[in-house]
Amino acid sequence: MTPAISIRNLKKSYEDTVALRGVDLTIGDGEFFGLLGPNGAGKTTTINILTGLVRKNEGEIEVFGRDTVSDYRFTRSQVGISAQEFTQDWFFPLDRLLYFQAGYYGIPRAKAKDRIEELLNRLGLVEKRKARLRQLSGGMKRRFQIAKALVHDPNIIILDEPTAGVDVELRHELWDYFRNLHKKGKTILLTTHYIEEAEMLCDKVAIIDKGRVIKEGTPKELTSQLGKAGITINVSDPGEELESCLKDFTYTQDDGRLHFTTQDPEEALPEIINALTRQGCHVQRVETTKSSLEDVFLSLTGKGINE
Amino acid sequence: MNWVGLWTLTSREVGRFFAVYRQTIIPGFISSILYILIFGFTLERRISTIDGIPYTMFIIPGLIMMNTLTNASSNTSSSMLQMKLLGQLPDLLQAPLSSFEISMAYIIGGTIRGTVNGLLILLVGITLGGISVMQPFATVGFIILVSVAFSSIGFLLGQLADTWDQLATLQNFLLTPLSFLGGIFYSIKMLPDWAQAASFYNPIYYMINGLRFTILGVSDSPPMTSFIVALIMTVGFFLAAVLMMESGKKIKQ
Q1: pTM of structure
Q2: Which residue stretches of B125-222 are H helix?
Q3: Which chain A residues touch B8 with a CB distance below 8 Å?
Q4: Labelling B163: which of A48, B171, B214, B219 has CA 20 to 30 A away?
Q5: ipTM of predicted complex
């Protein structure tokens, strides 16, 4: 099946900085894909080259198998982008701006009407339809930004920090909305500073750092490959035979506490407790720690996502 | 060709200046009436006629031209810079619109504003100055031609500028002086030789005199020369503005 987005060896340098050093990425049709990386890693540059805002130096980007430069009319019609930065406008009300946006994508007013009404309804913008952008709160502006991205019913939706600066309630509302879009078969490319957002929503994530994709996989694959999940058990009377009965496990011991390192604590825990019980140890307390995508991100990039 | 896109962006450009008509249409109208009242009626006592034309009538083609070219150029230049500064440009650049379609929409928008303003002053001239237009079709055609030229110039400047200050500098130190020195209020025959010679290098001189010929039948420059200069400017600046957009310089990184 032709992937929704295929990026090969994408390179871009600005005057004094190298932004992309050869990005390779394939996003399948219908995938919810997260692109994570610290500030300046190259996420926005990659997206901007894909959408035509920035010119690449080298490499190729295809949307549904068609080149984003030579076949830009097709590829751009397939993509809707909700940018991180809010657009401003001094002259026109929200609904008119949505009609303009539809028009740029070749959709005449009469055809766009139903779609725009639906979006105004779904995103809670009906009452603000005659308002100017400057009169809206941050949350409302974010809703408008998303409506604008969806007005031409694109197959690929790029959400660049879609929940930045919105309150918890709206964040949950937007997550539900994104999940619905995904269920309808839309391909979604998400960049976010909230790693738990990517962990919760995405089928697959790629971590990008210093202009390269350094790791790619499902959130579960990444946490199990690179995570540091562990179990800590407090036992009484460990006894001298302990070492032989726990020989199948990786652990350290200090002052009656056993620290196990495992990829899958849920599976390992019953086996460890059985082994300890057979040895006659009395298990007093059990703690499990499961690694998150954030730990993986930290271990790969050496810094937090906000750094 | 994305015709719906072109139509949408053009109607946005036109809607934008009509939405703020107090800034874009009324000022030229009022200032032209004032020029006619103050300069025309007071100076007419001293300069009764030029080339046999009453002074008030003589200045009207110049006022039309000044209004036309100022409005045509400022529509495109301010709209483009505004789009850049307000972060609206990505909406256009990410849409399936070619750079030619974007350029055309802007230039048509500026041309409409220049033409509307020019025709409005022509109406003022007919009602207040009592002029009768000798070649109405040529007059309208010339106003449109000059509007395209200056709309293209504005579009080029809007792409190049990064701040409002830069645009204002070009307007105040280039367009306005060249308009005034192009012979709005005088015939260059009234100037010393060196100033007459200098006027030949001012393209706005040909614009004003070309229009003056279509309206009043008098002109300092041969009508065909005026037309050719206007045509060369229109084609030249149109191509420069479109090619600049195509190159993406100052627009795309």
Answers
A1: 0.84
A2: 136-160, 164-170, 176-181, 193-199, 203-216
A3: 99-100, 102-104
A4: A48
A5: 0.86
